[in-house]
Amino acid sequence: MTPRTLRYLSGLVGMAAAAGVIWKIFMLSQDSSRIVVDQGRPAPTLISQLHAQADHPSFMTGMEHLPHSLAGTQPPPGLIIDAQGHLVISHKLRMFFDYFLSALGEEPLSTIEARVKAYMASSLPHGADLEAEHIFHDYLNYLMALQKLSAQTSATVPTQGSSLDMHMWASQLQEKRQLRASYLTPQVIQAFYGDEDAYDDYTLQRWEIAQDTSLSATEKSEQQKELLDRLPASMQQNMAAMQRLQNVQQSDADCRKRGCSAAQLHAERVAEVGEAAAERLDAMDAENTAWQQRVQGFLQQRQQILASPSYSPEDKQAQIEQLQSQQFTPNERLRLAAYTPVSTKAATPMVP
After folding, report:
1. For site-directed labelling of 74, which of 97, 174, 238, 274 has its Cα 20 to 30 A away?
2. How many Å from the N-terminal Cα to the C-terminal Cα in the chain?
3. Residues 193-233 pLDDT 10s
């Protein structure tokens, strides 16, 4: 899913509020494994920080001295126990883990592990905290194995325009699921990834129907509707919101092909999603344009530094990092990394 798609979905959240936040967007925004390369050197990853040493205080609750990105926030309520005092395994537990893992890079993995364990020990009865710690350990091992798998396959993914080849995508889905089974129990897999897997299966099967030349247009439509009807009700509601997104995207593309004005584009969006959502989309377009201009300006300056024969590689890296910190906030720098080409050092991006 492209950054622009994410931004359109954000604009539609207001429309989809009654049906709940679109789960796929939340998954993407919370997925701690989506860490990309930063300024030509490997980004902090689970593997690179596995043995990192950290000077940190002994945590009592895990919330002491939070990194900047987590300051003023609270973990998702993922630590739930049943009537017998056992840990309830749910998707909220994964959200809880990912909350702390999102700070990877601001602090070492060893510090994050200490935080999580301290928080669980202070929040859960004895026994449940050990259950949670065991799952967290398995989850970390899976993420590190996933990083290795992604490093092996990401460079060979064929593309057609901006779309992944579906056959390769299906193969990677299978590999990823087999990897999960090596580290996580079926109960954890279903709780952490059940909805995500259902959506991926739906996407793949819908594509297979669309490619089936033996079916008429009517038959394809009927089979795709049957697929949708088999999804849980909550996912069907979210799919309806995503369909509205696709309609808006198609309408935008058609309008731009015709060379329509900004006013005409706005009018077509109003017809599709209403005035309020159309205004949000217009505002995001303006924000995205400003962001792209900032990025292009930075990349031009970065290229000038890299092309200069007057600096050593270390000096170039230092100047680029200084330039980056002067022009972008910490959160923006994470986003910027996706636009930054890898330069002098090999990097291992983490792709879920």
Report:
1. 238
2. 12
3. 998 898 889 888 988 898 888 999 899 889 988 988 888 88
Q: Is residue 203 part of a domain?
A: yes
Query: For 106, what's the count of Cα atoms within 13 Å in the CB-facing half-sphere?
Result: 16
Q: In whole angstroms, give the CA distance from residue 94 to residue 30.
A: 9
Handedness of CA 268, 272, 276, 278 (dihedral sign): negative
Residue 324 covered by a domain: yes
Task: Identify whether 255 is part of a domain.
Answer: no
Beta bridge partners of 164: 159
**Among 314, 91, 313, which Cα is nearest to 197's?**
91
Question: Is 352 inside a domain boundary?
Answer: no
Q: Which residue has the tokens 């309609």?
A: 247
Neighbours of 95 (CB within 10 A): 17
Could you list the residue range(s) of the whole structural domain that residue 203 is in?
3-212+221-249+266-339
Instruction: Provide DSSP, 129-181.
Output: HHHHHHHHHHHHHHHHHHHHHHHHHGGG--EETTEE-HHHHHHHHHHHHHHHH
**127-142: burial string, b at 16+ Cβ within 10 Å, e else:** ebbebbbebbebbbeb
- For the chain, how many structural domains are there in total? 1
Cα angle 44, 49, 55 (rounded to 5 degrees) comes to 110
SS3 (DSSP) at 295: helix
- Cα separation of 66 and 72, whole Å? 8
Question: CB–CB of 296/278 below 8 Å?
Answer: no
Which H or E element spans position 294? helix 275-307
Each residue's pLDDT tens digit, 60-98: 899 998 888 888 889 999 999 999 999 999 999 999 999
Instruction: Identify residue 109 by its one-letter amino acid code.
Output: L
Burial 171-192 (b: 16+ CB within 10 A, else e): ebeeebeeebeebbeeebbebb
